[in-house]
Amino acid sequence: MSGTTVVVLFDFDRTIIDGDSDRWVVTEMGLTRLFDELRSTLPWNSLMDGMMKELHSRGQTAKDLKECLKRTALDPCIVAAIKATHARGCDLRVISDANQFFIETILEHHEVLGCFSQIYTNPSFVDEGGRLRIFPFHDLSSSPHACKLCPANMCKGLVINQIQASVDKSGKKIFIYLGDGNGDYCPTLKLGEGDYVMPRKNYPLWNRICCNPMLIKAKVHEWSTGEELERILLYLSDTITIQDNISILHHSV
Ligand SMILES: [Mg+2]
Ligand SMILES: [Zn+2]
Questions:
Q1: Arithmetic mean of pLDDT over the chain
Q2: pTM (2 d.p.)
Q3: Is 11 noted as a catalytic residue in this protein?
């Protein structure tokens, strides 16, 4: 029995799915013009809530939205990686600046929603009138975060700190963080020496890590394709578990 839990933290857009779920919905549902008009006037999170208002006023239902989300591309290798790491006892979580409705719809469609123990994202629900509402993850009025790296609605570094504090009490944890964007840099800085970060190659997170690798304590393993993500993630989770079993054996001899 291993004493260490591997906690795998996934960003969602451009990490689990190949593209960006917000952009996908905007393009596929014919909202591009309005989106571009309002882009400079509103924070992203409020803008997406506004887009959902527009969809609703055009008579599009939450069911239409679901059908649109189900067509997003998810690499079969990434589905396999999620299922395999879950089956091996890793604790899988999503940290994303998309929203609950989009993420759950897509993961459920690919039959991997149950593999995740937690999803940290902007809360959303379908109101009585059938409109999807999207809210910020952090309450902007009562508890704004002080992080300068992150957008006001969500600091993923703060989320990592909370996870680290909560799991500290229940045995040794090693984190593997997978991401692509600027919003994944803050949580990457919070990882320790025993942890791993898997940035998507040639994307903003990877660029920022490469600019100043000395700032990163975690070991860095880049990936480009779903096939690489699967291979590296399984290799890392296996290696961590095997090393841990060896150290337990040494202690018990
Ligand atoms: Mg992303
Ligand atoms: Zn932050």
A1: 93
A2: 0.93
A3: yes
